[in-house]
Amino acid sequence: MTGFRELFGREPDGRWAAPGRVNLIGEHVDYAQGLCLPFAIAERTVVEVAARDDDRVRLHSLAEQDSWSGTIDEVAPRSPDGWAGYAAGVLWALRQAGHKIGGIDLLVTDTVPLGAGLSSSAALECSTALAVDELFGLGLGGTPSGRRALAAACISAENDVVGAATGGMDQATSLLGVAGHALLLDMRDGTDRAVPFAPADDGLALMVIDTRVRHRLADGQYGMRRAAVEKAAAALGRPSLRDATLAEVTTLDPDLVPRARHIVTEIARVRETVELLDAGRLPEIGPLLDASHASLAHDYEVSCDELDLACSAARRAGALGARMTGGGFGGSAIALVPVEQEDAVASEVRAAFAEARYREPEIRGAQPSAGAERVG
């Protein structure tokens, strides 16, 4: 395996890791100033990085088997494209925010599963941001407020350089995650709160079912959903749909009604889920997960046949609830499952995929984990 020294002729200054995330509930509402309830997972993207005394940026990914080289000044909207835009875009965004940084050599050695809906892109951005913060003495990584500033740079990288109109939930989770907790993110006022979420304590497991249907958030569909939500808010004379009511939603143009209805009902489901978790009633959230998936599939139309099948098969085998997670159009579903039913659920899902002649899904557990950190 090619190492840092072989690529760049020197040793790295350190290694940094940032987790992917699973969104328990609150999907596609981050850009509507909504409430989200994600948690950081154990799977991490790891980068080895060395600072440079010029503006050159040299990037290589073992997973992508690809390299990019340029200067920070050469980074611009849609350039570089592909995976490199997420890393190089962070440097561009930090400089745009007024931070004095130079170039870097960076090697991506490990990665959150790519395209699985577990936010491998944010994990790459956040590991890069934490490395740059330390190497150039920005002093942001040591406090929650500083980490929020790093998250803002990562969001800018994804929105402005990569061109994916994501809302910021993934980056906040990757940098602010707390082990044994989900993170209630208020995307209107920027606040966050750790909410107890430890399924094992209730004899439960949260399974992630990767359909292996790969998606790209920058392919236009994500942006179309966001544009519809913003159009609906404007039609109601509101800055966002955060405080809209279902009665108001019915007054919209018919093509906007289902999109807006998902936003309003999903935010309500997040509130209900948090109330149950705060009260120690985790097993009762299953129906809310089911309702979330139904809304995403039918009102927001971001599911796919494989995701729908994963959820229905999991429920048949004993899951308390199941839903797609992430941007959709592929990726992963999650299922809340009694520990004693894990094998049965996995077997049922695999059998259903085989019968439908889909690729065999990858199934793993998800543990609420800590956020980005230096690891070497």
TrEMBL record:
This protein's record includes keyword Nucleotide-binding: yes
Keywords associated with the record: ATP-binding, Carbohydrate metabolism, Galactose metabolism, Kinase, Nucleotide-binding, Transferase
Classification via Pfam families: GalKase_gal_bdg, GHMP_kinases_C, GHMP_kinases_N
The GHMP kinase C-terminal domain, residue ranges: 274-354
Domain GHMP kinase N-terminal: 86-177
GO molecular function list: galactokinase activity
Annotated ranges, domain Galactokinase N-terminal: 4-50
UniProt-listed SUPFAM superfamilies: GHMP Kinase, C-terminal domain (SSF55060), Ribosomal protein S5 domain 2-like (SSF54211)
Keyword flag Transferase: yes
EC number: 2.7.1.6
Signal peptide (UniProt feature, chain positions): none
Family: Belongs to the GHMP kinase family. GalK subfamily.
Name of the protein described by the UniProt record: Galactokinase
Native source species: Pseudonocardia alaniniphila
Top-level taxonomy: Bacteria, Bacillati, Actinomycetota, Actinomycetes, Pseudonocardiales
Encoding gene per record: galK
